[in-house]
Design a protein that fits this description.
The chain has 200 residues and is mainly beta. The chain has a single domain, classed as YmcC-like fold. It contains 1 helix and 12 strands; from the N terminus they run αββββββββββββ. A 12-stranded antiparallel sheet has the order 6-5-4-3-2-1-12-11-10-9-8-7, with no helix packed on it. The longest helix has 14 residues.
């Protein structure tokens, strides 16, 4: 905005002239579509390495797992080297059967994904503005997404994923609730990442 105040008279005249020729009511521009890639950037070359310290992995040292996006297919899915696939559609990041992250990122926002005739996953943004400390560093402004799926009359599987802005998932945990008792299953934390750019 430098130089705007140097010639106020000329600027005021120009503004009045523009108003004189402008339509009486110019239509407002459409709002920008919410972009879920702000919290999960998708682009060929993006890479994430997680440290897996899941209880089900056994008593050995934590294992590392790297996922790298290697291509984009004809349907617009970003395909990784583990044959996973994600794309952006209708303000959400989705795989081939479920929506995993939906904008806008507001606490208590919820959505569902029907995985099969007998399986419905219920998602909720459980918290925003979180700080997450993982092996890759400390990340501010994170969002926590919680997904629930019934696994029987008295059991439920819960997935909690913490997303950091501009990075993607930094913590992934799953556990089962069986008769009200929490049974940990999977725990993985981000160890390193390489983000090329975000593409839609």
């Amino acid at each position: 905005m430098r130089g705007v105040i140097r010639r106020p008279a000329l600027i005021l005249c120009a503004a009045l002239a523009a108003c004189a020729h402008a339509p009486a009511e110019a239509p407002a521009p459409p709002p920008a579509a919410p972009d879920p890639t702000a919290y999960f950037p998708l682009a060929v070359g993006n890479e994430w390495t997680w440290v897996d310290s899941s209880p089900v992995a056994g008593d050995g040292a934590p294992k590392r797992r790297t996922v790298r996006i290697v291509s984009r297919d004809a349907e617009g899915y970003f395909v990784d080297d583990g044959r996973g696939a994600l794309k952006v559609a209708h303000g959400c990041i989705q795989d081939r059967v479920r929506r995993i992250l939906c904008a806008p990122f507001e606490a208590d926002r919820s959505w569902i994904s029907i995985v099969s005739e007998t399986s419905t996953e219920r998602y909720q943004i459980a918290a925003t503005g979180l700080t997450a400390s993982v092996p890759a560093g400390t990340f501010e402004g994170c969002v926590l997404v919680r997904a629930r799926n019934r696994a029987g009359d008295d059991a439920e599987v819960i997935l909690e994923t913490t997303y950091a802005p501009g990075v993607g998932p930094v913590r992934i945990e799953t556990f089962a609730l069986v008769g009200g008792k929490r049974v940990p299953q999977v725990k993985a934390e981000l160890a390193s990442h390489r983000i090329v750019r975000a593409s839609r």
